[in-house]
C-alpha cells in the first residue's frame, strides 16, 4: 500500500505558550549558547595549540568538544528563534534532517564518552602497555568506529520515521523533531516501530551506560593499590568523566528506555543533553583538571605576551 503523507509543515509547540516565559527562556538559552561556544572553543584551541593533543585523553576531549558544538547547534538556534516567533513551524524535510543529524551527533557523543572511558581504563589498569595500546592510529580507529556506529544508529532511526504516514494533526509537543513525538502524530499503528526505537535508542544507551559504569568501577578497584598522590589525580580525572556521563545519560535513558509515549517532562529532560550538558562539559573538564588549566594559561598568556610585544 502506498504511504500517504498530507503534512508538509509541522508546528512546534515549544517549551511554553506564555510569552513572558518564552522571553526569559530566550535570554537564558542565549547565555547558555554563548557559554557553550566559548567554553568548547577554548578547549579545542588550547588542546590543538599545545602538546596535550598528543595525549589520547585530550585527543578524545577535543573530539567531544567539537561534537558538543555541532550537537547543540542542531537544536539551540532554532529553539531561540522560535521563542521569539509567533508561529513556530518546521518543514517536513527540515524536520527529518534535524532528526537524522541530532541522532547522529548524539550517537557520536555517546560513543566518544565510551572511548574516553576505555582510554582511562587502559591508562590506570594497564599503564605499562598504555602507549602501545592507545597509539594515535588506535585513537583514530576509535573515532572512526564512533562515527560509523552513530551513522548506523541515526540511519535506522531516520528510516523508521521517514516512511510513516502523517495525515494530521501536525502539532509536535516538543521544541525539536524527535522520534517519539512524531510517532504520536503518525496515522498508523506504531507499536512495533516504537519497540524498534526502544531497542535502537534505549537499549544502546543502557548498554553503553552499564559498560561505562563497569569500566569506572574496575578503575576504582585498581586504584586501591596506587599511592595516595597518584590515586588522587586519577580520581579527579575519572570523577569528571563520571559527572559528564551521568549528566548526559540519565535524561537520555528517561526518554528513550521506555515504551513509545511522550510526557510533558520530556522537554525539560531533553534540555539536559541538548544544552545543559554541552555547557557544563568544558567547566567540568577544566576546573578539575590541572593539566588542562595549565595548558590554557600557557597558551593564552603566551598569546597576550606576544600581542603586547
UniProtKB/TrEMBL annotation:
<feature type="transmembrane region" description="Helical">
    <location>
        <begin position="20"/>
        <end position="45"/>
    </location>
</feature>
<keyword id="KW-0716">Sensory transduction</keyword>
<protein>
    <recommendedName>
        <fullName>Olfactory receptor</fullName>
    </recommendedName>
</protein>
<dbReference type="Pfam" id="PF13853">
    <property type="entry name" value="7tm_4"/>
</dbReference>
<keyword id="KW-0472">Membrane</keyword>
<feature type="domain" description="G-protein coupled receptors family 1 profile">
    <location>
        <begin position="39"/>
        <end position="285"/>
    </location>
</feature>
<comment type="function">
    <text>Putative odorant or sperm cell receptor.</text>
</comment>
<keyword id="KW-0297">G-protein coupled receptor</keyword>
<keyword id="KW-0812">Transmembrane</keyword>
<keyword id="KW-1003">Cell membrane</keyword>
<dbReference type="InterPro" id="IPR000276">
    <property type="entry name" value="GPCR_Rhodpsn"/>
</dbReference>
<dbReference type="GO" id="GO:0005886">
    <property type="term" value="C:plasma membrane"/>
</dbReference>
<keyword id="KW-0552">Olfaction</keyword>
<keyword id="KW-1133">Transmembrane helix</keyword>
<dbReference type="InterPro" id="IPR050427">
    <property type="entry name" value="Olfactory_Receptors"/>
</dbReference>
<feature type="transmembrane region" description="Helical">
    <location>
        <begin position="96"/>
        <end position="118"/>
    </location>
</feature>
<dbReference type="InterPro" id="IPR017452">
    <property type="entry name" value="GPCR_Rhodpsn_7TM"/>
</dbReference>
<feature type="transmembrane region" description="Helical">
    <location>
        <begin position="193"/>
        <end position="223"/>
    </location>
</feature>
<feature type="transmembrane region" description="Helical">
    <location>
        <begin position="269"/>
        <end position="287"/>
    </location>
</feature>
<feature type="transmembrane region" description="Helical">
    <location>
        <begin position="139"/>
        <end position="166"/>
    </location>
</feature>
<comment type="similarity">
    <text>Belongs to the G-protein coupled receptor 1 family.</text>
</comment>
<feature type="transmembrane region" description="Helical">
    <location>
        <begin position="235"/>
        <end position="257"/>
    </location>
</feature>
<keyword id="KW-0675">Receptor</keyword>
<keyword id="KW-0807">Transducer</keyword>
<dbReference type="InterPro" id="IPR000725">
    <property type="entry name" value="Olfact_rcpt"/>
</dbReference>
<dbReference type="GO" id="GO:0004930">
    <property type="term" value="F:G protein-coupled receptor activity"/>
</dbReference>
<dbReference type="GO" id="GO:0004984">
    <property type="term" value="F:olfactory receptor activity"/>
</dbReference>
